[in-house]
Amino acid sequence: MPTKCLFPAAGYGTRFLPATKAMPKEVLPVVDKPLIQYGVEEALDAGMRHISIITGRGKRAIEDHFDTSYELEDQIEGTSKEDRLADIRRLIDECTFSYTRQVTMGGLGHAILTGEILVGHEPFGVILADDLCIGETDSVMQQLIAVYRKYRCSVVAVEAVDPDQVHKYGVIDGRQLDANIFTIDSMVEKPPADEAPSNLAIIGRYILTPDIFDILRRTPPGKNGELQITDALQIQAREGMVLACQFKGRRFDCGSVDGFVEATNHFYNLRREKQ
């Protein structure tokens, strides 16, 4: 089963300027926890302890976050504030972290291909920290792992979106295989509403088999001249099988200001209910 999870985190975060001029968007806090930490917790809970992060220039704060801060921890040792580090200490203790840089921004497919050196020849997860997800019972990644365990092929998470939103996503065309599971026939990257094959949009959770790297190497640039993971997955679906899992849960699009504020309000209200 997949034990490694890849986090593409080299983007500029231009929709959050000026906040992201010097701060990685992945460490923007939803209440008091960075976006990427939510994703790493989800990966660990799904059994993926080896965390591989694709970074870029100006992203040192991500590495520092998943490391010990001796001065800070010494200052708060024995105080009530020490408990606030319990979650991050768990991740540091139970996970291993590896990093490589994406020197040029060439699309999500290019970022995943950059991570081959960290992943090796085995199935792996991919989490986009921008998509902050909450499962109804199991997390989204745990739901994908369950599908992978049964079918042993690449799996993408999808959710139904409003037709006027399909132009923002990769959209699948598929046949229902099981409850909430679809066999993918084709995928289209960010289609106009009148050309979309469905309203099932791919969101930032994947389980990928290692042959995806060879497929990415022979996939031509797609929309916007970038290497698109949807184009590579379409080839993989044509040559083998790729499944889509319509997950049970809720996603917050924290790549947008509206979604980020919505997520912040949601997690703040959860905290208030527990007090």
Give structural notes.
This protein is an alpha/beta fold and 275 residues long. It has a single domain (4-274), classed as Spore Coat Polysaccharide Biosynthesis Protein SpsA, Chain A, CATH 3.90.550. Helices cover 33% and strands 27% of the residues. The chain contains ten helices and 13 strands.
Helix content: 25-40%
How many E strands? 13
Strand line-up in the sheet with most strands: 5-4-1-6-11-8-12-10-9
Distance between the termini: 38 Å
What letter string, H or E per element, gives the SSE order? EEEHEHHHEHHEEHEEEEHHEEH
Overall residue-averaged pLDDT value: 91
Rg, Cα atoms, Å: 18 Å
Number of domains: 1
Low-confidence stretches: none
Structural class: alpha/beta
Strand percent estimate: 25-35%
Largest sheet: 9 strands, mixed
Looking at this structure, what is the CATH superfamily? Spore Coat Polysaccharide Biosynthesis Protein SpsA, Chain A
**Might you state the CATH topology name?**
Spore Coat Polysaccharide Biosynthesis Protein SpsA, Chain A
CATH class label: Alpha Beta
Separate helix tally: 10
The CATH architecture name reads Alpha-Beta Complex
